[in-house]
Amino acid sequence: MKKVFSLLLVILVSIPLFASEKSSKDEEFDPTDLIMHHISDAHSWHVVSWGEGENEKHIEIPLPILLYSEGKIHTFLFSKFDKKTHIAQSKGQYFIYDHGTIYQTNKEGVVTKDSHGHIINEKPFDFSLTKNVWSMWLSLIIILAIFITIAKMYSDKPSRPKGIQSFFEPIIIFVKNDIAEEQIGSHKAHKFVPYLLTVFFFIWINNLIGLVPFFPGGSNFTGNISVTMVLAIMTFIVTNINGSKSYWKHTLTAPGVPAFVKVLLVPVEIIGLFTKPFALTIRLLANITAGHIIILSLVCLIFILNTVIISPVSVLLSMVMFMLELLVALLQAYIFTLLSAMFIGMAVADEEH
Amino acid sequence: MDFLLTPNPGLVIWTTISFVGLFLALKKYAWGPILQALKVREDTIEYSLQAAEKAKADVEEMVATRQKMMDEAKKERDELLKDTRALKDSILAEAKESAQEETQKLLNVARKQIETDKLTAINQLKNQVADMSIQIASILIDKEIDTDEKQKELINKHLDKANFN
Predict the structure, then answer these.
(1) What is the reported pLDDT for B85?
(2) Nearest Cβ partner for B11 among A101, A176, A227
(3) pLDDT of A108-144, one tens digit each?
(4) How many structural domains is chain B composed of?
(5) Whole domain around residue B73: which residue ranges?
(6) Mean pLDDT value of segment B78-104
(7) Does one domain contain both A120 and A220?
(8) How far apart are CA A102 and CA A93, in angstroms?
(9) Cβ–Cβ contact B41 with A under 8 A
(10) Which of residues 2-31 of B touch A (CB under 8 A)?
(11) Which of B2, B4, B28 to mutate: most A Cβ within 10 Å?
(12) Which of A7, A155, A180, B62 is most buried, by CB atoms within 10 Å?
C-alpha cells in the first residue's frame, strides 16, 4: 500500500513538470529527432535544461574537439562553435558543426548539399573526446576500481569472500568455468579467461551506465557500432591468431568432401570467418540501441499524445522496460562473451572433424 | 539515421586504445591475482577435503582398533575370571576333602584310643574282680586252695567265660 502511495505521489509531483513542458511545445514535437539525438554520440555532454522559449537554459559540458585536417591537428572545446552559426575557427581553418558531424568550411560557413540535403563538404578526421569516450573512461575507472579492490582482497591467505568480493566472485567463476572452460576446454581456457572476463565486465558495466537516465549516464555507448565493431574485431583477432592447424585446414580445404562441393564450401567457410564478428557487432548494437529507443519512445508518448493523463502508463511501462533492460544488459554481455568463447573454442580445437 | 551503422574512426581509435589498456591493466592487477587466488583456494579446499577424508578414515580405523582391543581385553578378563573361579572351586574342594580326611583321621585315632582305653579298663576291672574274688574266697575258705596261684588261675578261667560286654 505504501509503495502504491509513493508511486502515486511521484506521478502527481511530476504532472506539473510535464504540464509546463507541454504548454511550451506548441510547435510540432518530433520524437524521431529527440530519440536519434539521445542515442547518437555527441561533442558536448548535456546535463540538464529548464525554462522555456527565451528563458530556456541548458547546462552542458563542452567536450574537447580533436581534428586532423590538412596536416594540422586542431584542438579546441566544443563551446568554440558559435551558438548561432555553428562555425569555429582554428589555426586559420574554419569548421562547421551540423547534427553531430564536423565539416570544413570557409569564413562564411558556406555548405554545399546534394540532392538529398546531405552536406558534401570535406570532413576533417574527427577523433574528438566525445560523450561516448568520456562515458567509456568513466566505465574504465569503475571497472578498474572494482576489480583492483577485489584483487587486493585476495592478497591475504585463502579465506571466505567478503563484501563486494562475494558479489563478483561467483560471476568471475561463472565466466571462468561455465563460459571459458565449457566452450574452450579446461586445458586451453586459462589463456583466454582474462580476455573473456574483460569483455564481459566491459560490456556489462557500460550497458548499465547507459541505463542511468541522468548525468553522467545515459550514453548509448555499447549501442554504438564503432564500439561493438572494435569488440568484435578483438574477438576475431584473438580467435584467428590462436587458430589451430586443424581449424585452418578445416576452414581452407574443407577436408572429406568432394571437390565440386569444396568449390562452394571453402568460400562459404571464409565468409563465415567474417560473418561471426559481424553478427557479434550487430547483435550487441541492435539490442542495446533498441532498449534505449523503447524507453525513450515510452517517455515521448506523453508528448506525442500531448496529454499528461498518459504519463502513469508511460512511467509504468518504462519502469518495466528498465527492468527488462537491466536483464538485457547482463544477458548481452553474457551472449557476447559466450559467443566469443565459442568461436575461440572452435578455433583452438585440435581434433579432426 | 545512417550514423547508426557507420563506424566513427575517432571513436574506434579511442575504444581500441582504452579497451586494450583496460585489458592489460586488468590482466596484470586484477585477473592475474584473482584467478591465482581462486586456484590456490580451490587447491586448498581440495587438499583440505582430502586431508579430512584421510583423517576420518584414520579415526574410523582407530575406533575399530580400540573396539578390537576392548573386545580382546574383555575376553581375557572373562577367561581370567573363569580360571579364577575354577581355581577357587578346586581349592575349596581340596580344602574340604583334606579337612574331612583330617577329621576322619582324628576320629579314627580317637576311636582307637577309646578302644584301647576300654580294653585297659576291662582288664583292670577283670583283675580287680579276680583279686576281690580271691579275697572273698580266701575269707570264705582258708584251706581249700593251697596257693593263690591256683585260685587265680581258676578265677581267671571263669572270668574269661563271663562276658562283660
Answers:
(1) 94
(2) A227
(3) 777 788 888 788 888 888 888 888 999 999 999 999 9
(4) 1
(5) 37-161
(6) 94
(7) no
(8) 12
(9) yes
(10) 3-16, 18-19, 21-23, 25-27, 29-31
(11) B4
(12) A180
Which residue, A99, A128, A157, sits at the end of a domain? A128
ipTM over 0.95: no
Per-residue pLDDT tens digits for A12-71:
555 444 444 444 445 677 888 888 888 888 888 888 888 777 778 888 888 888 888 888
Judge if A248 and A321 occupy the same domain.
yes
Which contiguous run of DSSP H or E holds residue B50?
A: helix B32-140
Indicate which of B15, B16, B41, B48 best probes the interface with A, i.e. most A CBs within 10 Å of its own CB.
Answer: B15
Domain around A295? 132-348
List, for residues A189-220, the tens digit of each pLDDT value: 889 999 999 999 999 999 999 998 888 888 88
Give residue A9's pLDDT. 55
Residues of A in contact with B14 (CB under 8 A): 127, 129, 133, 136
Indicate if A297 and A323 belong to the same structural domain: yes
Q: A242 lies in a domain?
A: yes
Q: Clarify whether residues A112 and A253 are in a common domain.
A: no
Decide: pTM greater than 0.90: no
Q: Based on the domain organization, do A167 and A316 belong to the same domain? A: yes
Q: Name the domain count of chain A.
A: 2
Give me the total of CB pairs closer than 8 Å, taking one residue from chain A and one from chain B.
Answer: 122
Does the residue B150 lie in any domain?
yes
The answer to whether A138 contacts chain B (CB < 8 Å) is no
